[in-house]
From TrEMBL:
Record-linked PROSITE patterns: MFS
Presence of keyword Transmembrane: yes
Coiled coil: none
Family (UniProt): Belongs to the major facilitator superfamily. Sugar transporter (TC 2.A.1.1) family.
Transmembrane segments: 46-69, 76-99, 105-125, 137-156, 162-183, 238-257, 269-294, 300-322, 334-353
Subcellular location: Membrane
GO CC, any one term: membrane
Organism of this sequence: Piptocephalis cylindrospora
Protein name: Major facilitator superfamily domain-containing protein
Taxonomy, superkingdom: Eukaryota
One GO molecular-function entry: hexose transmembrane transporter activity
Membrane topology according to the record: Multi-pass membrane protein
Keywords tagged on the record: Membrane, Transmembrane, Transmembrane helix, Transport
Pfam families in the cross-refs: Sugar_tr
Length: 358
């Protein structure tokens, strides 16, 4: 449930952006009429971008804390579920942009913990010959969460219903709390900085950080945060539907990657994924500049698919694969810290950069 929440929070503000900030959609006759909460939270584009991007700052702090904490896995899972529950409730019930900002920050802390611990736990319980497949379960949960957010956004992006999109992760957090007694428990030990600077661990740390920076450098968060906004120029009436098709493709290719990782190896898939995303991004930028709708749709789907085959799952698998279990949490948390910083920069700057270059 943790990776599912991770993916949902990444994409939950994608489709309802216009409704939340400007009440752009007309309410349906069948919509309920809540009186306690405003139908929208008017704000400039830059402020909305800050609310989107603050998830990454929370994720940065959550990832660092997860790598440094000592105690039981069950206790860490409890803290994670409480953060996700509080963040979702505060975001979904927000009456001001500041409330939404605070809620997204708490949710970010929760998914920061998930991002560190889930891949390590999965690799820890996986048979040696199936570690690649088990490792992709984390990424599969994330992309299914993104898909769910797109489905909710397609049908609930109205002035009276958008809050249900943001409240849905609270149900996932309650599910985590309910299943907590079934969570395998063991002790977590913090790793000192000096221990990470040992030659073998230092190499693993540099590799993990480089992979996480490369993942964000691909531009994936710009697509996951703002795909509906990006495509609205070439698909004015169906951008949300195209975004949904993108997410469906993402799930399908991530399922395929589960088999390919153990058969072809990480290096081949990572190189192929990186080269393909570079070529497809060039095609996407060109098609958007010339308003080629069909080419834009195909390019963005191919971009997400090429990302999902390598750049998506492999960076999360690096730490548990390259370093001993005692240091895996610390290496993973520092790698993800770099990932979250990149995510924040992209999430906060993308809309402004796009507006400035037209």
């Amino acid at each position: 449930l943790g990776p599912l929440s991770f993916g949902f929070h990444i994409s939950e503000l994608n489709s309802p952006q216009a409704v939340i900030t400007t009440c752009a959609s007309e309410p349906s006759i069948s919509d309920p009429s809540p009186s306690m909460f405003p139908e929208c939270l008017p704000m400039p584009e830059a402020q909305y971008a800050s609310i989107v991007a603050i998830l990454s700052i929370g994720g940065l702090i959550g990832s660092l804390l997860a790598g440094l904490v000592s105690g039981s896995r069950r206790r860490v899972a409890l803290i994670n579920a409480i953060l996700l529950l509080a963040g979702s409730l505060l975001t979904g019930l927000a009456t001001t942009p500041f409330h939404m900002l605070c809620g997204r920050f708490l949710s970010g802390m929760g998914i920061g913990v998930v991002a560190v611990m889930a891949p390590i736990w999965l690799v820890h319980i996986a048979p040696p010959d199936l570690r690649g497949a088990f490792g992709t379960v984390n990424q599969l949960g994330i992309v299914i969460g993104i898909l769910l957010a797109q489905i909710f956004g397609l049908y609930l992006s109205t002035p009276n219903l958008w809050r249900y999109i943001l409240l849905f992760p609270a149900l996932l957090a309650l599910g985590q709390l309910f299943l907590l007694p079934l969570t395998p428990d063991s002790h977590l030990y913090p790793t000192s900085l000096s221990a990470l600077l040992q030659p073998d661990r230092r190499r693993a740390l540099v590799t993990t950080v480089a992979l996480q920076i490369g993942q964000q450098g691909s531009g994936i968060n710009a697509v996951m945060f703002y795909s509906t906004s990006i495509l609205s120029s070439v698909f004015p009436k169906s951008a949300a539907l195209v975004s949904l098709l993108i997410s469906i493709s993402n799930v399908g290719v991530t399922l395929a990657a589960a088999n390919l990782l153990d058969r072809l190896g990480h290096r081949q898939l990572l190189v192929g994924s990186s080269l393909t995303t570079s070529v497809v991004l060039l095609a996407l930028a060109t098609s958007l500049a010339f308003n080629w709708a069909f080419v834009s749709a195909v390019a963005i789907i191919l971009f997400v698919c090429s990302f999902a085959i390598g750049l998506g799952p492999i960076p999360f698998l690096a730490a548990p694969a390259l370093v001993d279990p005692e240091a895996a949490g610390a290496v993973q948390s520092l790698g993800l810290a770099a990932n979250w910083v990149g995510g924040f920069l992209i999430g906060s700057a993308f809309l402004s950069i796009r507006s400035s270059i037209g």
